[in-house]
């Protein structure tokens, strides 16, 4: 299974989720295209955008305000 890591700033999104304001969105757009991910990319040319993290094990690893490039 192909994997991709987003880099960006972690923000609160509801009580049990986090958003990551993605810095490497152009790379993510390329990855989605090359992997034939059929999610509608209506945000693709608007960047930067947010990726929502909902899985508890990943939310626990996201510290608010952290930012990585």
Order of helices and strands: EEHEH
What would you report as the Rg, rounded to the nearest angstrom?
12 Å
Cross-sheet strand order for the largest sheet: 1-2-3
Record field, number of beta strands? 3
Give the biggest beta sheet. Answer: 3 strands, antiparallel
Q: Which residue ranges are poorly predicted, with pLDDT under 50 across at least 5 consecutive positions?
A: none
Kindly report how far apart the N and C termini lie. Answer: 24 Å
- Quaternary structure: single chain
What is the total domain count?
1
**Coarse structural class:** alpha+beta
Instruction: Please tell me what the overall shape is.
Output: globular
Itemize the secondary structure elements and their pairings.
Layout (H helix, E strand, L loop, with lengths): L7 E6 L3 E6 L2 H10 L15 E4 L2 H4 L10
Antiparallel strand pairs: 1-2, 2-3
Would you give an account of this structure?
This protein has 69 residues and is of the alpha+beta class. It has one domain (8-59). The protein is 20% helix and 23% strand. Strands 1-2-3 form a 3-stranded antiparallel β-sheet. A hairpin with a 3-residue loop joins strand 1 (8-13) and strand 2 (17-22). The chain starts with 7 loop residues before the first strand and ends in a 10-residue tail after the last helix.
């Amino acid at each position: 299974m192909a994997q991709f890591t987003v880099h960006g700033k972690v923000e609160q999104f509801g009580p049990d989720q986090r958003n990551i304001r993605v810095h490497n969105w152009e790379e993510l757009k390329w990855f989605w295209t090359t992997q034939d991910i059929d999610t509608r990319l209506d945000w693709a040319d608007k960047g930067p955008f947010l990726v929502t993290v909902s899985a508890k094990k990943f939310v626990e690893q996201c510290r608010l305000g952290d930012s990585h490039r």
